[in-house]
Amino acid sequence: MKFKIKEIKIDAGELTVILNNKDAKDMGVRSLDRVKLITAKKTITAVVELSSSVVKEGHVGVLLKVFEELKTCDTDTVEIMPTERPHSVELIKHKIEGKTLSAEEIREIVVDIAAHNLTDIELTAYVVACQLNGMNLDETTYLTKAMVETGDTIELDRSPVFDFHSIGGAPGNKITLLVVPIVAAAGLLIPKTSSRAISSACGTADIFETIARVSLTKEEIKNITETIGGVIAWGGNVNFAPADDIIIRVEYPLSLDPYSQLIASVMAKKKAVGADFFLLDIPIGPGTKVTETELANKYASDFIEIGRRLDMHVECAITYGGQPIGKHIGPLLEAKEALMCLEGKAPSTSVVEKSVAMAGILLEMGGMHNGKQIARDILDSGKALEKFREILQAQDGNPDLKSEDISPGQYKAEILSSIDGYVISLDNKKLVRIARTAGSPRDKGAGLVFLKKRGEKVDRGESMYEIYADNQHKLDAAVNLTNLIKPYTIEGMIISHVPGRGRATNYSKH
Amino acid sequence: MKFKIKEIKIDAGELTVILNNKDAKDMGVRSLDRVKLITAKKTITAVVELSSSVVKEGHVGVLLKVFEELKTCDTDTVEIMPTERPHSVELIKHKIEGKTLSAEEIREIVVDIAAHNLTDIELTAYVVACQLNGMNLDETTYLTKAMVETGDTIELDRSPVFDFHSIGGAPGNKITLLVVPIVAAAGLLIPKTSSRAISSACGTADIFETIARVSLTKEEIKNITETIGGVIAWGGNVNFAPADDIIIRVEYPLSLDPYSQLIASVMAKKKAVGADFFLLDIPIGPGTKVTETELANKYASDFIEIGRRLDMHVECAITYGGQPIGKHIGPLLEAKEALMCLEGKAPSTSVVEKSVAMAGILLEMGGMHNGKQIARDILDSGKALEKFREILQAQDGNPDLKSEDISPGQYKAEILSSIDGYVISLDNKKLVRIARTAGSPRDKGAGLVFLKKRGEKVDRGESMYEIYADNQHKLDAAVNLTNLIKPYTIEGMIISHVPGRGRATNYSKH
Hints:
Two copies of one chain form a homodimer. Chain A is α/β, with parallel strands linked by helices.
């Protein structure tokens, strides 16, 4: 049947068209079935949704991704035929059944994901099956390769190329904003792409976009790296391992990230920029993605092995992530703290120490001796700040930006301690929930500032932390949540008080 | 923020609204996030999709299910606020993590499913997690109860109430059209609700709707059963265990049906009509849902145990389903064959024998002796046909309908044998794929007629089976598929021919 094309500006995840109920019935097509759209120039497979009002009979409603494909065809009509679902859905079922997939089978799934050929239902089945049944190292290697091959890649004009990545879970981990300028200032190439937050409070791309343009093209990433040595780009704007960004659409609402998918996703993005040397930061501790040393070691050895199979030299650093890194979380707040560290005005030592240590390992992977000292010298000398300003300028930021120019959200609440004591712990997951409730990462000014961290003394009535938000309603919601879930544990100074009659230990949760 | 309501006639699975990109950004809301819609009369939670053209700024596009909720509120504007995803999503994650869920937790998930509060992604995660991690008998019982409680129920004016159900996988299993009139003619109450095909070629509702109205209200189901003794209704039209119908939306595209979900779904629909005695048919054999006797026995004992916990007497019949039941598959073709059996013109004995055996067990559960003989007498005497005509009439069908009045699709292909031999097997799954490709169950005339079944002799050039379709394109596709996957295996009469030099066994697949 021939249909008249009607553009509908909704960006559904998969390739979707809307048919009038009556036309669909005539064709024997149901909601979520596949159809082929045939023009003289190309054939596109799309998923069907039904409507009785959005499109008239004889018309087909074409959503954004399909419209982009069709508009190159110089036609306002299209032939539509029912077709079967992709074979990759059968392969996803094999993974549900616990089977091991071959290189070709994994490639078939990834090709369909990258081409937006799978529905949310099918993608979710894939993710949950990988979460539960896993993939072995062979499968993970195939997955990585397929993810690289189905996307763009860049090749810098010289080598070697360096890169690094932190596995998530440690809030406030803004070290990329220090590591990249330090490494670049040392003369190495580091084309760093970062992600936005999935389930965390804030990703590096969320942070850096508050002060620079992170939506760079692959040519810009190549050119800026070749010129300046480093770049801090949002990975989602380029087509590196695009399957990953599509999978994230279903991982995000479930806060799921299967083991094999995590490895393949990181490795594919590094391979796509041509990394020869890659340092992986694995923060461990309560509330991080990797809570146990044993699992961290497994990740480390699997990353290293898959690196070997991909001709990439991988090293891993297992770091402490049991409480937030530094004192700020949230997009603007983290940009501010990173800049303070580069300016030599660090509000605490943890961001600086971690950044210098990581940059140091990278420098040593690049053949330098005493990398950590070199990294520290680069930071202390102001060369890292200078390189950061070059990167800012190359990415359309203000190169004269100072940390005091950056202000968080205008709605603020202070959370006070109700007792005297020492801070025993800050609960990462609870803090992330509070920051997200306050609006982070979408509301750029939202976030938390920790006035007290683990081990510090706090007096009754003293501020433990501040919550910032861009609007009152979200601030209220975050304050309500903090009262409910109490992310701080304070141990009273009086550990045990033995009066005339026995009494419980004076121990209170905040 | 206040929004003007715009109705959009798309029937998405979950409660969905469409916001203009700019409004969503202002509110910090992303695609697939939740919002609350607040009117003076009620508050509804919905999932957000974004568009730049379907709705203008300040307007909210309201899809069918939400519009039905809102239209009772006598307002054309609504207040919208971001809100968190339902807690049941966390509980689904617990199931992904392999945890056992409590009665209250399962109820929370089912309540959200029934209220259309979960997205396709979340529903799929639930189904795949249940498929892989399973539910124990306690959880399955809680699930069944929650599914009953979140839907409508009926109570007949007298008891006991009888019911039966076949687990899927045996194509052509049209016995409901015989069992219900036989049991009702014997004076028992049998308010039978049936489903449409999910992954099979054709469900009982697909069959019976070709000759009667199956979309009955619960009052009609009650009244017809009380008056006539039996009814054959589509379960999807009534609100019995509605969570099940919502889950099917994601099970169908994946052809998944988790063990616990299958039990709960069947038991909940039986409990909802107040069944006191329930007979379950478990067809086994290659290509059925339950292929092994061991699994059939496990299903049987679990169904019986859950029946015990729900005060329902359950018996199970494990039957042979390794090839299609009877000679026809497809909606009109199965209606025709069932009517032929009732008229005493059965094209083969298998439909009659199975129906009489199943009805016989139900009669014995009802206290009759020699149930099978009574069932056969009712069929042979024409009383079952008479009762069937009463049911037809009560459901707005033509009570004078004769089997010869029912014609399948006008496009037909005969599939011939290329050798002489005996039919070794008919592959259920392949036959289902062919029937579905021909258009079944949506195209009512589509289906297959088996001229030869297992064990029968077929000559070279003789018809083995016929494919029917309602249009040429689907017939061609089905014929192409049959040539590719060859659902019949014919063993050549010459089992082994030993000529002067060794030669391979003359064995050919059709």
